[in-house]
C-alpha cells in the first residue's frame, strides 16, 4: 500500500459475534454492562428449533465459553458416536465405472432401430472382452493384436 493512499477503516466491532446492544443489558444478575454477545439459554433450553438465547457482556460470555461442554448429559456411547471421524458419512454411494464408460443400458428398455445407443458401447465392450480360454492379456498384447487386426481370441495359428 502506498503512503499516499488512505487507509481503510476497520469496523468498530472488534470481536466476532458482537451485536449492537441497543439498550439491552447483560443477562447475568448484577451486571450493568451492555449485552452484546449471544449465548444459549442454558440448562432449561430445549433442542427443538433454533433455541432460546440470552445476551451477555464480553466478560460473562468469555466465562460462559470457558465452562461450556458440548458433551454434557451424553452417555459415553453417544460421545464416542459424536467424535467418530466419519460421523454423518455412513451413506452408501454407488461405485464408479472402472472401464471408463457407463454401463450399457438394458436393451429391452429401448427401441433403437438405427443402433444409435449401442454404437457408443460396442467398441468399449469389444476392448474389455477377455479371451475365451480365460487367459489374461496385457495392455501391450492388446495393442499388438489391434495393430495386426486380430481379435483378442486369436491363437498362434
Q: Into which percentage range does the β-strand content fall?
A: 5-15%
Number of alpha- plus pi-helical segments: 4
Query: Could you say which overall geometry the principal axes of the C-alpha atoms support?
Result: elongated
Strand order of the largest sheet: 1-2
Helicity range of the residues?
A: 10-25%
Average pLDDT number: 76
Largest sheet: 2 strands, antiparallel
Whole-Å distance between the termini?
A: 79 Å
Number of strands: 2
Query: Rg, please?
Result: 34 Å
Low-confidence stretches: none
**How does the helix and strand content classify structurally?**
mainly alpha
**Can you write the helix and strand succession as a string?**
EEHHHH
Structure description:
This protein is mainly alpha-helical and 157 residues long. Among the domains are: 16-42 and 51-85; 107-148, no CATH class. 24% of the residues lie in helices and 5% in strands. The protein has helices at residues 58-67, 76-83, 119-128, 139-148, and strands at residues 37-40, 53-56. A two-stranded antiparallel sheet has the order 1-2. The longest helix is centred in the middle third of the chain and has 10 residues, at 58-67. It is elongated, with a radius of gyration of 34 Å.
